[in-house]
């Protein structure tokens, strides 16, 4: 997590938080010199700095973030809510989808916990998953060529341009049409929350475009 002082200035240390035997442990944060703002994220990366997370869609990591939580000498405990940063896209067919791939995707990005801004970088490559779902960046997405495997058979189709929102799951129901597939239905739901973590840190959906 990252910590700011009363004026909003960022402390240089990127603090690792661990859960050991049901107790959260981390480096001591002094509250004697004023209130502090806490910005939590997952997964921890010691190379992150400046309140920013480095993202790589090729890893298909479920990145989580929190909004600012204030702590003080009078209120030193923090209850932190984590939100899904990415959008989940799921493909369904009569036969189980066991692999999904998108080529020429801008996979590299950075996210500022302090400002809530997402910067997608120009590097492009292939992202893939061994399930029927992909994790994509939120925001306006152009039409994409999707290759998938269902019931052991390869299929290709073009997913139309979409304005994805973080914390949402987009479910594409597909049907076979000749040698290809067509979109039969699209539903948008809240990404399934991950539940409560030891009563103090919870994971929820939140829209962020």
UniProtKB/TrEMBL annotation:
Traced from the root, the source organism's taxonomic lineage reads: Bacteria, Pseudomonadati, Bacteroidota, Bacteroidia, Bacteroidales
Q: What is this protein called?
A: Fimbrillin family protein
Q: Tell me which InterPro entries the record gives.
A: Mfa-like_1 (IPR025049), Mfa-like_1_N (IPR042278)
Q: Which Pfam families match?
A: Mfa_like_1
Q: Which organism is it from?
A: Phocaeicola vulgatus (Bacteroides vulgatus)
């Amino acid at each position: 997590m990252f910590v700011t002082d009363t004026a909003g200035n960022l402390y240089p240390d990127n603090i690792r938080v661990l859960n050991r035997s049901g107790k959260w442990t981390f480096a001591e944060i002094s509250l004697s010199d004023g209130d502090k703002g806490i910005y939590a994220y997952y997964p921890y990366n010691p190379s992150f700095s400046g309140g920013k997370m480095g993202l790589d869609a090729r890893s298909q990591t479920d990145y989580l973030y929190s909004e600012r939580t204030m702590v003080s000498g009078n209120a030193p405990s923090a209850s932190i809510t984590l939100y899904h940063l990415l959008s989940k896209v799921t493909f369904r067919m009569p036969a189980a989808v066991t692999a999904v791939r998108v080529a020429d995707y801008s996979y590299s990005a950075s996210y500022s916990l302090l400002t809530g801004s997402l910067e997608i970088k120009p590097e492009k490559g292939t992202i893939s998953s061994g399930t029927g779902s992909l994790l994509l960046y939120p925001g306006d997405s152009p039409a994409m060529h999707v290759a998938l495997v269902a019931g052991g058979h390869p299929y290709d189709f073009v997913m139309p341009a979409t304005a994805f929102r973080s914390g949402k799951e987009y479910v594409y129901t597909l049907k076979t049409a000749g040698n290809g597939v067509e979109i039969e239905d699209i539903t948008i739901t809240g990404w399934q929350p991950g539940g409560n973590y030891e009563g103090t840190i919870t994971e929820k959906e939140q829209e962020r475009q």
